[in-house]
Each structure stands twice: as structure tokens, then as C-alpha cells.
Design goal:
This protein is mainly α. 42% of the residues lie in helices and 0% in strands. The protein contains 3 helices and no strands. The protein is elongated and about 75 Å long.
Length: 101
């Protein structure tokens, strides 16, 4: 069945015709412009009292060691403090997640 041949209400046909006419009228009024150039700030620095912030306290409390393995290398030890029976599961989960990167 060709849906283009189905009957539509007269009001809808009028709205579609009006929209089509409006589209043709607007087609010549679009002008391409280049994107504005945005200058990025390259001065990033940490505050001198960074160790006093709550996240630093969280990291010291919940993480064993704040050093991470080399980029692309799997973890040798879990990052967080875990009971011995959960350590191997944490490492296996890390490998599973990294496989999907």
C-alpha cells in the first residue's frame, strides 16, 4: 500500500501545503558562517591547600595507595581497601571494564 495515496483531512493538507511553501521561501535566506574562535585558558593550577579539601580526605581514607598503574596496564592491587575475599573479584572486574574501553 502506498501511504502517499491515503486521504488526509483538508485542514492537515492545508497546513502541509503552507509548511512546504514556507520552507521554499526560507531556503534562500540561510547563510553559512564560520564558527567563532574560542581561546582556551591554559593556566591550570591546584590551590596550595588542596590536601584540606574533602575529596583528598576521602582518597586518603578509602584508597590504599593513590598511585595508579601505567596507562593501559591492568591493576595489580585493588585501589580500595577490601576484605581479602573480595580482592580478586575487584581485579577481575577492573579487567572486565577495561576490556570494553
Amino acid at each position: 500500500m502506498d501511504v502517499r495515496r491515503l486521504e488526509i483531512p483538508a485542514e492537515l493538507a492545508a497546513v502541509l501545503r503552507l509548511a512546504q511553501d514556507h520552507k521554499h521561501a526560507q531556503s534562500n535566506q540561510v547563510t553559512e558562517v564560520s564558527l567563532p574562535e574560542v581561546k582556551a585558558k591554559a593556566t591550570f593550577s591546584l590551590p596550595p591547600d588542596i590536601s584540606n579539601f574533602p575529596f583528598s580526605t576521602f582518597v586518603r581514607t578509602h584508597f590504599q595507595d593513590v598511585s595508579f598503574p601505567a596507562l593501559g596496564q591492568p591493576l595489580q592491587e585493588p585501589l580500595t581497601q577490601l576484605r581479602p575475599e573480595h580482592r580478586q573479584n575487584a581485579l577481575q572486574l577492573n579487567k572486565l571494564v577495561r576490556r570494553n574501553e
